[in-house]
Amino acid sequence: MTACFNQLPPELLLQIKERLGLRDRLQLSATCRDLRAAAVHQWGVFRSIRFSARRAKTADSVLAVVKSYPGVVQKLKLVIDPTPCSRGHANPTPTHEGPNLLPESALALLRGHSEPGDGQQLAPGLRRLAVKFPDAHAFRRRLGRPDVSIYMTFDDNGAPEFARDNNTMVDQALGALAHTTHPVGGATRLALLNLPPHRSPVFATHRWRRLLGRVRDLELSMFGEQRTFDMTSNGDGDYRAAVAGLADDVFRHLAAVETLRFCGSVHAPLGYKGGAPLPLVAVGMPRLRYLTLGNVCAGDQILGFLKEHERASGYLRSLGLVYATADSEGPRWSDFFVRLILMKIQIIGFGVTRRSPSVPEFIDDAEPDGGGGPPAAREISVERLMQALSVWPSACVQGEFGGWVEDRSRNLQSGKDGLDEAAHEEFMDMVDATAGDAASEEWEGFETEEYSDSE
To answer: Which InterPro entries match (predicted)?
Structure first.
């Protein structure tokens, strides 16, 4: 029996295993335990691979696995760590050799083929390709300094050498992606996590724009920092300009995208007065139907985008807001929902994940990646929400250095008068009615996938 199994390709063995009952699966796995080529008992390992992209030996091993089992790998996540440094010094500096901060094997996995080309497509059954760049917590952990900033140009306590190295790795990773042969125009979802405020030269290339024009499912999250309670990335003019530049660098070229998940940083939420804008461009995404926004302001910029998108391309099938708050200096939640009703925005699916507006100092050190929340976000417990006295919180960007603070008086008022909740219920009645009218289209409801960074 073992000899017969030896003649079967791993993909066929996995299909056989999926059709067996539990007892038969165990027997098959036991039979194949010594068959290294079959690797049936390692199905979970090879189906979803997450690895440190800067470690050459690790990347080489992953490349060998993907070449050996091309039809098995469905999810591939490259985690890019900060460059090493000389710890113990007052001002650590990067310690590395040569300009290639990412090994060739990692870049080959992003391209979907090796160079020089051997004609083999890597992971033709890939469903998700993710690149996670380092967040603020990763930099602080690497440098051993909880008070350091990486990209905030107005802060004297910075580490610009590490920002330059990070930018170089971003350029190398995006350059490889621009040449990718992975099926991003089909079933593969592309995710770029913790994208730093760096206007990469790759953004101006034809290959990059052609890649974006093929992507159908995109997940994008932003890097952000908070060094003290009142000093965040939102106070940095360069940061605000880089986020605004995503309109031309990314969102204006997503001609085929149908599903978009875009998340600001928990330290620097987007769309608030005085902070980084929400850089969405409706005319650049004519096929967009499913939109999820995280760490954003539920206010004028979202309303403007929805109206522009409906005018240019028709209504969204679904809108999800993850960890959104209203701007204390703008309309409150009740105004947001009332304006959606008056604008007659045609949405047939709406969901909101609430959070407390409070951002604890050095939140990265408490929980770096947000558990099951969006990348670089952090879930707040129900008890914490009740303590905030408002399930529809408000906050604002305040001061010269972009501090993000809650509006306690408005939150208390919201919990007392109930206007926000009442407006939400009225809006949901309109959503339900629109969904009923759209039932003839045999629409299957969009179930917002969690911004999970645990894959």
So the answer is: F-box-like_dom_sf, F-box_dom
